[in-house]
Amino acid sequence: MAEVINMPRLSDTMEEGTVASWLKKVGDKVEEGDILAEIETDKATMEFESFNEGTLLHIGIEEGETAKVDTLLAIIGEEGEDISSYLNGDAASDDSEEVNSDSEEKETETETESSDSSEEQELPEGVIVVTMPRLSDTMEEGTVATWLKKVGDEVEEGDILAEIETDKATMEFESFQSGNLLYIGLEEGESAKVDSLLAIIGPKGTDVSGIAKNFKSEGAEPKKEAPKAEVKKKRQKLKLKRLKKRKKLQKLQLRRQLQDVFLCLH
Asked: Is Transferase one of the keywords UniProt gives this record (predicted)?
C-alpha cells in the first residue's frame, strides 16, 4: 500500500517549507533512512529522510517550490502501483478542507500571536525556549535517545543537540540558535509530548530557573523513563546508523562530483 509523505514540520515555528533539492527521482528505489530531499525551513536547510521503503511514485513539490506544512510532498509505494485516488479524490477534499479552515486559522493565529507575544516579553534578551519538535507527520511524542551537548556547552547554529526517537525512526535534531545550553528539560531515555520543554539556549550565565518552572507548571505530561539497558542498546544502534548514514552521504557527494565533472567535459 502506498504511503503519502507530507511536508514535515522540521522546527517548532515552521509553517511552510521549500524543496531545495531532491536526492531521489520518480522511479527510484527508496530504503528506510535514505535522504529524500533537502528542505529549507524558516531557519535552516535540513535533510529529510524516508521512514518508508519502496519506489518513489510521485513528487508533489518540485525543486524551488514552497508549500505549507502537511502539503503532499511525495508518495512511496510498490512499483507500478495505482496512486490516482491519492492524487485526484484526496486533492479535491484537501482543497475544500483548506478553504473551510482558513477562517479558523486566522482566528487562532491572532490568539496565538497575542499569547506568544506576552510569553516572549517575559523571556530575557537572547533566550530561546526549544520544545520537542514534530519530526514526522504522525509524531505525538518523542524520546531523547542521547544528548550531544550538555548544560554549559556553547551551541552554534546547525550543531546537533540531541538524537530523538520518534514513532518511526531516530533522528538527529539540530539547533537553529547560537548560544549557551542553559537548561535541559528531558534527560536521556525520557519521553514527552510534542511541544514539551526540551531545552533552553541563551547568553551564558542567564538565570532561566523561573522559565523552566513556569513552563513545567503549565505544561507537559509526566515524563516516562526508559530502562538504562534499553537506552544503552539504543545508543549502540544509533552509532551504527550514523556510520551508515555518513557512508550514504559520502556516496551522494561523490556522485554529484562525478556528475559535475561529466558536465564540464561535455
From this structure: yes
Backbone φ and ψ for 37, nearest 5 degrees, come out as -155, 165
Q: Which residues face 39 on adjacent strands?
A: 19, 46
Three cell numbers, residue 215: 513552563
Exposed / middle / buried, residue 57 (Cβ in 10 Å: 0-12, 13-18, 19+): buried
Answer whether 0.90 is exceeded by the pTM: no
**What is the DSSP code string of 191-205?**
EEETTSEEEEEESTT
- Which band of pLDDT confidence, cut at 50, 70 and 90, is reported for residue 232? low
Q: Which domains does the chain have, with CATH numbers?
A: 3-87 (2.40.50.100), 125-225 (2.40.50.100)
State residue 177's pLDDT score. 85
Query: Tens digit of pLDDT for each residue in 134-154?
Result: 877 678 888 999 999 999 999
CB 8 within 8 A of CB 39: yes
Concatenating the DSSP letter of every residue in 208-236 gives -HHHHHHHHHH-PPPPEE--HHHHHHHHH
Q: Are strands 66-68 and 72-77 parallel, antiparallel or unpaired?
A: unpaired
